[in-house]
Amino acid sequence: MTNSIREIRDADCIFITGSNTAESHPVIGYEVVRAARRGANVIIVDPRRIPLVEHATLFLQIKPGSDIYVFLAIMHTIIREGWEDRPFIDRRTEGYDALAAVLEEYTPEHASLMSGVPVEQIEAAARIYALGKRVAGASIYADGASGTGERGHSTILYAMGITQRSNGTDMVMTLANLAMLCGQLGKPSTGVNPLRGQSNVQGACDVGCLVDVLPGYQRVTDAEKREAIARAWDVERLPGEVGLTIVEAMHAAAEGRVRAMYVMGENPMMSDPDTSHVERTLRGLDLLVVQDIFPSETAQLAHVILPAAASLEKDGTVTNTERRVQMIQPVIAAPGESRPDWQITGELAARFDARMGIERRPGYWDFASSSAIFDELARVTPIYRGMSYGRLAGAGLQWPCPDASHPGTPILHGETFSRGRGRFNPVIARDPAELPDDDYPLMLTTGRVLYHYHSGTMTRRSEPLDWREPGGAVEIHPDDAAAIDLRDGAPVVVASRRGRVRARAQISERVPPGTVFLAFHWREAPANMLTHDFALDPVAKIPEYKVCAVRLENPRAGLADRLRRSEGAAFRTSSR
Q: What is the pTM of this model?
């Protein structure tokens, strides 16, 4: 996030896309509600009528996968009407002319044709976001608005609805272009703000748990950075090759190029696309090690299970979605033989060294505490360099925090960008990799519900939560349900080219015709049995979880006819 959570309540315009904020990030969702009650305009771009639509000024209900056309048309309108922030563009950016040239063809009329969103809604969204004015009710479609005068503050919130796509990087680049076009960066209550899917996703990325970077987003391909960290770690060299992402690793394992996997705090059997392929791959490994707090679906396939301590059973740090590094403290003792993750991995590494004849040196794997680990991390991570356990007490610190006297950074890009001038990256619209056809005429999109979390490993063990939301339901528009004579609450089969899932039908106008929705928490109806992994984002290498082609089947269709035929046969037999 370029900005902080607390700033959302003071925004004049909140642009939300790819995020069911109220259910996936309820604390942040409340900040949006608070802003709306203070008069802020809320613009939502989503295929589903999510709960925050009740507080929205504009709801742009798109066909799944068509949002890129809407974003580009919004920028087209802003330039056409002269609502761009020319002083900001001239002073702080480069590449504007190339962007403007590409945007010429992405008119609101074209976007409306591709997305189903009315032209007037696209133009109203452009005006409200660009000017950041608090515009009430019926006046959102007013003509003659001027870009002169002081702008309000507009913020963008997005999540996995736009990143878990084959063009996810383009989507994020487009939102960055939109923010720079309107000068909505470097100020309070503005910015481009991803909402992270789990509590320490940001922290894991910060400290090097990505295949292409070292701690602090230092590229593994940068020889100078590698050598500096190697010296700090007192090793001869560090590998300079970019590794495999999880989907790439699964493909490599299926081809026999990867023979063992060590899975920590992850449940690929629920969270990875094309689950049938994942299961075949994991079963074919020579060794599968799972380190987790509960026996997940993936752990059922493991050769070795290592019991880890849960977050309330250990100390350490997490970095949340607003880049805030915070300390956690144990509340209860870890049960049985479970240990903090760093102790397990440290002991394994030490034993590997011993088997390889490497002399065990103090400070390599036998850290005295999590505090000692964080001190070492701060030494090699420029954005954390000014942090220590002593400074994290209380509210923590937001990175970058380059030295011990620095107060942390609530807002990024205040005076300049990290590369100097912000660069516009022109984007060409691309459709999803798999579109509906005669065999699979509907689009499936996936997500979360309020009462459960991710693959359900934790929340479905909570009796009150499981009582409140005990199983999966497929949201289906009444028109699509009528086409197969399906009633609300009846069983339905959702089929794709990868697999079939049986669940309960929930007939609802929350989804538009041609779209169905299924949360991915349910092991009885695993949504990712249906999704595909053949089209990855070329940069982020993330699969297209959010859009795939499916069909609906009514398992009771023809049942009445079969019963009648059966009854008729019985009658004829008895008559004879």
A: 0.91
